[in-house]
Amino acid sequence: MNPPEGTGQAGGEVRRVVPDVETLARRLADVDYLVDEGLATSLFLSLRLPQPLLLEGEAGVGKTEAAKALAAVLDTPLIRLQCYEGIDAAEALYEWNYPRQLLSIKLAEAGGETLSEEALFGPDYLIRRPLLRALEHPGPRPAVLLIDEIDRADDDFEAFLLELLAEATVTIPELGTIVATHPPIIVLTSNRTRDLHDAVKRRCLYHWIDYPSAPREVEIVRRRVKGASETLAVQVADAVSRMRDSDVQKPPGIAEAIDWLAALSLLGVETLDAAAVGRTLGSVLKYDEDQEVIRAAGLEQLVLKR
Amino acid sequence: MTDFGVETVHLDLPPLAAALSRRLHDAGVPMTPERPADFARALTLVRPVSRRRLYWTARSVFVSDQAHAPAFDRVFFSVFGRTSSDDAVAHDERRTEGAPPDERPAVDGAAAGATLGSASPRAGGSGDEDAAEVEVPLAMASDEERLAGKRFDALDPHELAQLYRLMTRLEVATPLRRTRRHERARHGRRTDLRRTLRASLRTGGEPMRLARRRRRVVPRRLVMLCDISGSMEPYARAYLQFLTSAAGSGRHVEAFVFATRLTRLTRALAGRHPERAIQRAAAAAPDWSSGTRIGTALKRFNDRHGRRGMARGAVVVILSDGWERGDPALVGREMERLARLAHRIVWVNPRVSANAFTVQAGGMVAALPHCDALVSGHSFDALAEVAAAIGGAATPAIAAPAVTAAEPEPWASATPVPGSSVAMPSGHGPSRGNTTPGWVTDD
């Protein structure tokens, strides 16, 4: 049976690297990205269907890291487009190299030639922005395109992305439609500052990344902070999980747990106590109010044995 | 019964996918025609060796928002059964529920225990309200004038319905904000190189005229938080109409209601039929006419929505009388947070219009220092003042809070009786007693 997935050489290559969900999970673990079954299944489907994957979750749970890990597993470049308010086609897709065009016009003039418009708006004068680079990636395996924090872009930009998400093509007025030779693996992330348009969601697979279970978090932070002791890692994961359950505005994510463990190991802390927490609280809680909440509850509460 | 566990992969996939998607649709999970096909394709790739694998495969394909996950779980487990390990999965989900972006009545209805396959749980509501609206006579100018000046709490249901027409004429426009996007403009500050160059080709490469562009301006987002607790009940219906008409005016409007909890209504209020939108909204909020926890509601708004970006640079309108059952200090703290995020905060308090009004309600005292404007909005005419305040007009200074002996709360707040449910105040006419059926006062 031939599954209707990405055809041709690129699809075959992906199939060879990631034959099933278990292999993908193992390979992701090899590049220090640990996934649970839900995320593994979503990533696998996104690679093999292929279909863009929309990842949501609290800040710092590893949405961006997921795309980086995918690129590492496939051994292809990660092309990242950081979205921001007001991003438009000129910054995301392509721009013409105006200084160079002007120079060419002047040179042609000096040489007594005339420069046709087709020549002036040809590939030579095209500045390729991330989306175009991802589409033109020569292979052999497709590039991973990370469209990061799409909720920061305005909704016009979402509409602009639809063609890319559905067809893996983009249209440049001067050049025509550009079809990807190896359709990129597209990962979108959102922090939910606003609702994405249904049209975008419809074209994507969806996965909500949750905070990991305590044992998994210990394993994750230990892989990221080399040389940290297991006791310390367990204590950090435990304390962070208590902070998440408490009444803080911004619950710490895995990223903060990693930062915190790194800070503690750098200071040579062996086991976590109230004093050590007090010195390093700034690397895990970034709001003054949150620090006050935790201090008021008592720092020693964070390091109690469960 | 045959053991069909191993036979699953040989099932005829398309009917299975179609049946599952239909059930999901009935349970309120948004569905598109492509999804069943995608699911069938996904199953050919992922061999569903375990129920867990099948679960995650189906969920990746069918669920496009965390808020729909509970509805999905119910359908999935009812179709494929549930094991103890599934419970563990479901439990993990609950640990970090995301900002519920739209609590659509469809999902809520299903949560209330509607059985699958029964009539769609979508909040259709009773049709009699629609019927009532048809009867609006050709409004005479004098009639409208009288209506416009009348206090909301003195309106009868028929007048309330008429009021909606007036409200649609109200122009609610927020101040402008410059975006990073550009648009072409004759006298813009920046040069539009692309167009300049294009034009220069016609003149032999000599840029004769510089094309210009400027930063585009867009209206700021408008966020409205409306108090629907017992003490605000006489105004709730009118304000809900105001929310609906404002929400229908543009895409930069977010609407919430709160009493003991915060409910986002933006999605419920969208749509072409205002009357139905109001019914949907009424069905979406479970805490009509209950006690007020302004501080908790504000905190929830700040944590879930405001901090993530909804309130940033926005005009926030709070419609409440400021009677707080919780700790006023929390109101002050959360208002301060909100003030740091928002461009402008307009507090609409219908009691401001009363003679010799002084700020006494605990929540109001705490909130006042962080408000940019305090307006009354007790009648349609007064709503024009609200619209002006939203647009950034200066409002008369508010008398400093003269804290006197606490005046008794005019409507004793009610405490929900467990198990009772109150939807919208029935019909248009809010009851004006001390209690609302289904609630008991606590005193």
* CA-CA gap between termini of chain A: 52 Å
Q: Low-confidence spans of chain A: pLDDT under 50, at least 5 residues? A: 1-6
Count of helical regions of chain B: 17
Largest interface: A-B, 61 and 51 residues
Structural class of chain B: alpha/beta
- Biggest sheet statistics of chain B: 6 strands, mixed
Portion in beta strands of chain B: 5-15%
Q: Please work out how many helical segments of chain A DSSP would assign.
A: 15
DSSP E strands of chain A, number: 9
Kindly report the average pLDDT value of chain A. Answer: 88
Q: Span from first to last CA of chain B? A: 60 Å
Side by side, the strands of the main sheet of chain B go: 6-5-4-7-8-9
Radius of gyration of chain A, in angstroms, nearest whole number: 24 Å
Rg from alpha-carbon coordinates of chain B:
26 Å
Q: Sheet bearing the most strands of chain A, described?
A: 5 strands, parallel
Mean pLDDT of chain B: 71
H and E string of chain B:
HHHHHHHHHEEHEEHEEHHHEHEHEHEE
The order of strands across the largest sheet of chain A is: 2-5-8-1-9
N-to-C series of helices and strands of chain A: HHHEHEHEHHEHEHEEEHEHHHHH
Query: Given the C-alpha coordinates, what overall shape of chain A results?
Result: elongated
Number of strands of chain B: 11
Question: What's the topology here?
Answer:
The complex is a heterodimer of chains A (306) and B (443).
Chain A: H1 8-17, H2 21-30, H3 37-48, E1 53-57, H4 63-74, E2 78-82, H5 89-92, E3 94-96, H6 98-110, H7 117-120, E4 126-128, H8 130-136, E5 144-148, H9 155-167, E6 169-172, E7 176-179, E8 185-190, H10 198-202, E9 205-209, H11 214-224, H12 230-245, H13 254-266, H14 274-280, H15 288-297
Parallel strand pairs in A: 1-8, 1-9, 2-5, 5-8
Antiparallel strand pairs in A: 3-4, 6-7
Chain B: H1 13-26, H2 34-45, H3 51-62, H4 69-80, H5 84-95, H6 105-111, H7 128-134, H8 141-149, H9 157-169, E1 176-184, E2 190-191, H10 193-202, E3 212-219, E4 222-227, H11 233-247, E5 253-258, E6 262-264, H12 266-269, H13 274-284, H14 294-310, E7 315-319, H15 328-341, E8 344-348, H16 362-367, E9 373-375, H17 380-390, E10 414-416, E11 439-441
Parallel strand pairs in B: 4-5, 4-7, 7-8, 8-9
Antiparallel strand pairs in B: 1-3, 2-3, 5-6, 10-11
Helix pairs in contact in B: 1-2, 2-3, 3-4, 9-11, 11-13, 14-15
